[in-house]
């Protein structure tokens, strides 16, 4: 059941192994741009959906780091994560402002969290997005699949304009994995970028499974980046393997790839997400850029 929390979702040995990974790169920590912290009743519903292997998931998906909020924060810090996010996302109108207020309070209590906000296509969205930025939001989350909305909805025109002008990044789940939605895929995003070419987008999950199309967008648009969330892991490779033919282009995007984990909702250990990036064999300099330097530069972290 979702309210049954693991007494110890991480161990000292696991934390030491993650720290050893980054130390081996000459780093004193890493930055994870794709982690989830939400109001408890929302997260409980998310976990219940994962437990049910619902249609947007389609297979068994155990949550490795099921624990109370303080324990989850402690896990990231024990792993040596210098900065992380609190990815929140609405699935109906009038939900985003409430989530934004919760996320602002969470970031105030946890200064190592990049204050996160979100939005939904509804009247007033541009105004509350502006207010969130003015109150300190540093990254936004858009989940096209769960929200079941089109990024081309006219109610989002003002939102994209505000975000492009502020150059505030948006982590956007817009690929059609793990299951397609009505508005997922690269073409709606391509159309948004044609209208707002300065929009700072971080395409979640490398755009799974439309990898080639999202690599092309990252190559074409200066402010489009990709995050590694769940990509290259054994779990994801079984369902949507990354095409070997794209690897040379991925290596060339060294400055535009950011590490993300999807913590705590991952069906494997945190270290595996890092090792999955390492086994691409692009070298330590590429890894340093991905797990730390690119996000540090984007978010102005010393």
From TrEMBL:
GO terms for molecular function: carboxy-lyase activity; hydrolase activity. It comes from the Bacteria. Keywords: Hydrolase, Lyase. GO terms for biological process: secondary metabolic process. Residues 31-301 form the Amidohydrolase-related domain. InterPro entries: ACMSD, Amidohydro-rel, Metal_Hydrolase. One of its GO terms (cellular component) is cytoplasm. Pfam families: Amidohydro_2. This is Amidohydrolase. It comes from Gordonia iterans.
